[in-house]
Amino acid sequence: MSGKTHVQTTINGEHTDFLCEPRQSLLEVLRDVVGLTGTKEGCNDGNCGACTVILDGRIVTACLVLGVEAEGAEITTIEGIASGGILHPIQQAFLENAALQCGVCTPGFILASKALLDENPNPTEHEIRFWLANNLCRCTGYDKIVRAVLDAAATMQEV
Amino acid sequence: MAKSAWPEANRRKQIGARIARHDGPPKATGAARYAYDMNPKGMLFAKMLQCPHGHAKVISVDASAAEAMPGVAMVLVEKDKDGEFPATTFDGAIIATVAATTEEIAEEALSAIEVEYEMREVITNDREHGLVSGRAAETGDAATVMDGAEVVSEGYYGLPTITHCCLESHGQVCEFRDGELYIWPSTQNVSGYAGSVRTAADLPNEKIHVDVQYMGGGFGSKFTAGPWGTACVEIAKATGKPVKLMLDRAQELKSAGHRPSNFGTVKIGLKKDGTITGFHSDVWGTNGQGRFAQRAMPYCLKEIPNIYTRSQGIVTNRGSVQAWRAPNHPQAAYLTMSALEDAAAKIGMDALEFLKKNLVFGDVDRKDYWAEELDIAAEMIGYASKAHPRGDKTPGNIKRGIGISFHLWGGKGGASACDLTINPTGTVGAKIGSQDLGVGTRTCIAQVAAETLGIPIDMITVEIGRNSYPASGASGGSTTIGGISTSTRDAATKALNVIMANVAPGLNVAPDKLEAWDGRIQEIGNPSNGLSWQDACKSLGQMALTKQGSNPTEDGTELTTADVGGVQMAEVSVDIETGIVTMENFVAVQDIGLIINEKLAESQVHGAMIMGVTWALYEECVYDATTGKMLNPDMEFYQLATLGDIGNFQVKLMDGEKYQSRGVIGIGEPPAISPGAAIGNAVANAIGVRVPELPLTPDRVLQALNEGGMV
What we know:
Radius of gyration of chain B: 28 Å
Largest interface: A-B, 59 and 56 residues
Number of domains of chain A: 2
CATH superfamily of the largest domain in chain B: Aldehyde oxidase/xanthine dehydrogenase, molybdopterin binding domain
Structural class of chain B: alpha+beta
Oligomer: heterodimer
Number of helices of chain B: 17
Distance between the termini of chain B: 70 Å
Number of strands of chain A: 5
CATH superfamily of the largest domain in chain A: Beta-grasp domain
Strand content of chain A: 15-25%
CATH topology of the largest domain in chain B: Aldehyde Oxidoreductase, domain 4
Number of helices of chain A: 5
Largest sheet of chain A: 5 strands, mixed
Distance between the termini of chain A: 52 Å
Structural class of chain A: alpha+beta
Shape of chain B: flat
Strand order of the largest sheet of chain A: 2-1-5-3-4
């Protein structure tokens, strides 16, 4: 047992303080301390990508980041993607392309797709497949996710 | 009187529409709350200590140090019904469960529990015929089955045990309040779940409240609470606190369900013109400690004149079996379809021509469908220009090939009841104690209700996932869509008939001359004699109207049937230097009944195909023969296909009056049957030699090439 550390971060644009044990992962902190349960636990060892969040502009699997490492960081989770009740074009494209079924992998895929389109607004299909190969889905259809990201990229180019 | 029979094609607006799923926004924004996401105030975290040995007897358990740790609320040690420590039969059997105020304390406490084991002999080998145990099931006469054959083709084929690997693991959160149990499980059986925790809770079903708004995949493995679920309930009852017990990934892969393995030899006797004369199969496999089901061999071609089959189980110290998407069909399809293409190759006949010729022996309800679907699939994948005899003779180390398989399934709707309420303002609510594993249950209920009442879909509110709603069967056997669409249609029709009877006198027509269409109740053939839906609902006065509908319907109207078929063709490329198999194109043609939502039905097929690519190329539970430990209980070494591994998919759902007239049929499972066979056949077609066992890993491909490759 060890004492808790005070950590200051910005989560989805809001200054957020939390207390966590040094051994707690950012995933656990987000879900159980901050109450943002949209970030999902799939494997807890960095292989499935369900807990993908954006930390200081880079995608990370929150299960492999310690809560204390987030000191001073800007974090975007799935709860911060839509704004003012309006879905982000990526979310909209996932719905229209039926790119989700059970939905557990979906937050991670959407965060990873957002990071891709932030960096490369007009990716090829190959680039999408390569970029998203760190996220695992067990039930829907990766093909539909590729179509969704292509659609979202096109929509975002128009705006 | 409006009838519950499905409307004609020209009177359908909602049914068959490509509507995005209603549960999409909460899932895409993180608002959807799964079992894992429930955190009631004061909740304890429960963790399980599992047996690390393949086979052992627990001699003693000392949990005193764990119990004394600050923050530990309870340690529950497993005992059998006689109060003895259990004999554990696989890596992952539960020894004890700890509940503590944090996950970390619970994990520390687990490591403080001292367990003494007495080791027992371990058997994990399920590949060797000599290890069979238990009685064999046998049909036919082995001595005469090949009589009359001019050519006999023989091969060995196999599939290992695999797991479900649901992305949301098994488990639940539960809480006792005022002597009643509130439970949020990850289950595919909302209405039946209470029965599996009733004994642990010591409560009647009506005092057990199950709530499953979202769940993260089941594939057949989440029908009951399981030992972790009952332990969770026992701890909640004893401590008086809410308890969360979700399996971690290793526990999920070791103990939450396996698909049985299947190995065996298949002989096919045939004439030189390709007509099959006899079929001989001798298969075995393991269900862990469970009973091995008889394999339905030969798959699909049940009318072959001479058939001998033998099937036998091997009891092993592998993880327990749960139903796995289309139980037993993928194995039977792999063994049969592989043998069929090997037979075709042996006589130098084109595989497609060979299969079509022998469809005469096919299941009577489906052989005509298969014939049509084989042609469609061939067209979609470009068979005519791409097909070649076994062994791609193209120079270089990349060889391409095409493989074929076909399958069958039932899919008739299961028992379901729906309460449909029409409010005096015209809004409508539907309640069903069903669940959404991903099929889009809410969306489909809303579509059927809106269609039946002739109103926009956004006037329908759907509630599912609670056992306080009318009971609906578990989601297994692809029975959900047929069940919920029938009960909704039946309930909405009954309610509509009350509204029609109310307004008919004012319109001066008999109620059976009215229709619900375009937001109006109006006279058939004279639409100007009518009134808006909202005005019609005012006839209810102050009180809402609720009617219950069911599947089967009370009046015997059949809105759902069974018996679908499907064909899949895979095109692969194989690098014969590295043994790596790459998916190029994968085509699925699936017949279905009346499609409620084409977009969601397609998703089911896509998902099944991906799962199929995964078990064809990557998935296998690897066990150590000496210790019985599962060696790959994580998502690094228990591999799933990624987005980069699947190639291009094309899906064709058969549609039109011939199919629609069959009523609604579920297809969650059938497209998951053929992938292994189609991909295995494609690899054989590419490299000229059969790779007998799945998954088709590079080492297996290279071994097959070394032992007899034509290339």
